[in-house]
Design a protein that fits this description.
Blueprint lengths: L7 H4 L8 E4 L9 H10 L4 E4 L10 H6 L3 E6 L6 H8 L4 E4 L2 H13 L3 E4 L6 H4 L3 E4 L5 E4 L5 E6 L2 E9 L3 E12 L4 E2 L8 H7 E12 L18 E4 L2 H5 L13 H9 L1
Parallel strand pairs: 1-2, 1-10, 2-3, 3-4, 10-12, 12-13
Antiparallel strand pairs: 5-9, 6-7, 8-9, 10-11
Helix pairs in contact: 5-7
C-alpha cells in the first residue's frame, strides 16, 4: 500500500478543530515542524496536544501555540517557552503535567491497546492525590484542578507497595519526524530523533510522518526499521531546504584560544 502524500498540506487537511494530536520530538530534536506549519495554515483550532514539551518561542509547537490554536496540552516539560507560561498563568491554556516516563508509557499503552497501567511514579504527590492546577482563572485562582487517581496496594517481589493508575493516551492524530521511510510507512529515525516519535506515532489513530527521504518498499533493511508501517498512515517527503532547518536549542561555544588556556592550566 502506497502511503505517500503529495504535500504536508494534503496530509493534514482532514484534521478537525478540537482534535487530540500526539506530536513527536524532544526539545528541538525530531520535531515535525513542516507538518506543524501546514496545520497552522490549515486552520484547525481548539486542539489538545500530547508532546514531551511545547517547543520554544517561535519554533515547532511554539508556532502553533503563538497562533492560538492549542487549548490543552499534556506534557512533561514546559520550561523553555515564555508564551506558554503567559497563556498558562493567564488561564488561556490547560496543562496536564505528567512525569516523563509515565507520558512515554501512556502513549505506548494507547498504541498497543492497553487501557492503562499501575506505576509507583507520583505516589504520595499531587500527581496521584489531585489538586495540580490544570487551568488557572483570570484572577490567578485554580479554575480546573487535576482529579485524584486510583491507587492500589500491590504485592510486588514479596513486599506490598502503593501504585497509582495511569490511563493510556489514544490520540486522534499523530505528527512525527523521521530520517527515512518507505512507501509502506516503515520508518528509520536518526540518533536522538528516536525519542517520543515512535511512541507518538503508535498512539495516533491516524499517524502522519514527515521524512527526509522516501525509498521504495524493500530498500530498508528490516533490522534497521525502528517503527513498522502498520502504525503509519501517511508519509510526506521533505524538500532539501525543509530537511536542513535544524536549529540548535542552546548554543554553547568557547572564545578563540580558550581551549588552549584550559589545557595548559590542567598541565
Amino acid at each position: 500500500m502506497d502511503k505517500t502524500a503529495a504535500s504536508a498540506a494534503l496530509a493534514v487537511a482532514d484534521i478537525p478543530s478540537g482534535a487530540t494530536i500526539a506530536v513527536g520530538g524532544f526539545g528541538l530534536s525530531g520535531v515535525p515542524v513542516t507538518l506543524i506549519r501546514a496545520l497552522i495554515e490549515q486552520g484547525a483550532d481548539g486542539l489538545e496536544i500530547v508532546s514531551n514539551n511545547c517547543g520554544v518561542d517561535g519554533w515547532g509547537l511554539g508556532e502553533l501555540l503563538e497562533a492560538g490554536r492549542i487549548d490543552r496540552i499534556i506534557a512533561s516539560y514546559v520550561g523553555e517557552n515564555k508564551e506558554f507560561a503567559r497563556q498558562y498563568l493567564g488561564g488561556e491554556l490547560e496543562v496536564e503535567l505528567t512525569p516523563q516516563g509515565t507520558l512515554a508509557e501512556r502513549l505506548r499503552a494507547g498504541g498497543v491497546g492497553i487501557p492503562g497501567f499501575f506505576t509507583a511514579t507520583g505516589v504520595g504527590t499531587m500527581v496521584s492525590s489531585g489538586g495540580l492546577p490544570w487551568r488557572y482563572a483570570a484572577d490567578g485562582s485554580i479554575a480546573v484542578p487535576s482529579p485524584a487517581k486510583e491507587t492500589r496496594l500491590i504485592d510486588s517481589l514479596g513486599s506490598e507497595r502503593e501504585y497509582v493508575f495511569e490511563r493510556a493516551i489514544r490520540a486522534d492524530y499523530a505528527l512525527v519526524r523521521a530520517a527515512r521511510g518507505d512507501r509502506h510507512g516503515n520508518l528509520v529515525f536518526e540518533k536522538s530523533t528516536r525519542n517520543f516519535n515512535p511512541l507518538a506515532a503508535m498512539s495516533g489513530r491516524i499517524s502522519i510522518a514527515e521524512v527526509d527521504e522516501i525509498v521504495e518498499a524493500g530498500e530498508l533493511d528490516p533490522d534497521d526499521i525502528h517503527l513498522p508501517g502498520i502504525y503509519i498512515d501517511r508519509v510526506v517527503e521533505l524538500t532539501a531546504e525543509q530537511s536542513r532547518e535544524l536549529p540548535i536549542e542552546k548554543v554553547t561555544v568557547r572564545r578563540a584560544g580558550e581551549r588552549q588556556r584550559d589545557e595548559s592550566e590542567a598541565r
